Amino acid sequence: MNLEVGIRWMELFNEKVQNEKDYLTQLDTPIGDSDHGNNMSRGMAHVVEAIEEQKPENLNELLKLVTTNLLSKVGGASGPLYASAFMGMMKAEAAGEEWATILKAGLENIQMRGKAEKGDKTMVDLWTAVVEAVSKDELTHDLIDEAVEATKPLKAKKGRASYVGERSIGHIDPGAYSSGLLFHAMLEAEAE
Ligand code: ADP
Ligand code: MG
Ligand code: MG
């Protein structure tokens, strides 16, 4: 990962979020409050705008900019959680860690903030699968899709989806799906 790839990563993530805004909202309807599409779309629009205006000069500045914009613009549960991810990544990057470790630090910060474990049907499930795969250099688009799909049979134990209890079973978790878009975008940016 470097600054150019990182910027491309955020641009591609933004495109995916805007294209799939309605689907993200649809996923957040049976097990949430129908705002995940709006939350992510608003946040990522601000992120790409801020990149153009502030022109980060290195990867650390980029990660910082993403953190502050997601925190201030997204709202909901997902804003602070995504911001925590990028904050953890920013710190690990500053410490000179390699990319797999940086992503792991992102996951750890999500868990520090939201207290979700793997299997609770949240974005943590997706991040856990991705971090494990990246550490073995085995991340693929199929693996991401399978990890998103794997949230479907689970019963939600954290966040709003946990309020509907058993009725959360059979639905994909919206935050896992949007995190899937994040990592599809990462693979695409890395391949360019
Ligand atoms: P809200 O639920 O506040 O409306 P969003 O709809 O934007 O926020 O985001 C919902 C997503 O946030 C969920 O699908 C889930 O992936 C994630 N989420 C919620 N609570 C937690 C948590 N405690 N830990 C990790 N992820 C969580
Ligand atoms: Mg919601
Ligand atoms: Mg909400």
Structural features, described:
The protein is globular. By secondary structure, the chain is mainly alpha-helical. Helix 2 (21-27) runs antiparallel to helix 3 (36-54), helix 4 (59-73) runs antiparallel to helix 5 (78-94) and helix 7 runs parallel beside helix 9. The protein has one domain: DhaL domain (Serine Threonine Protein Phosphatase 5, Tetratricopeptide repeat). It has nine helices and no strands. The protein has helices at residues 3-19, 21-27, 36-54, 59-73, 78-94, 99-114, 123-135, 141-149, 174-191. The structure holds adenosine-5'-diphosphate and magnesium ion (2 copies). This is phosphoenolpyruvate--glycerone phosphotransferase.
What are its keywords?
192 residues; 9 helices; single chain; binds adenosine-5'-diphosphate; mainly alpha; 68% helix
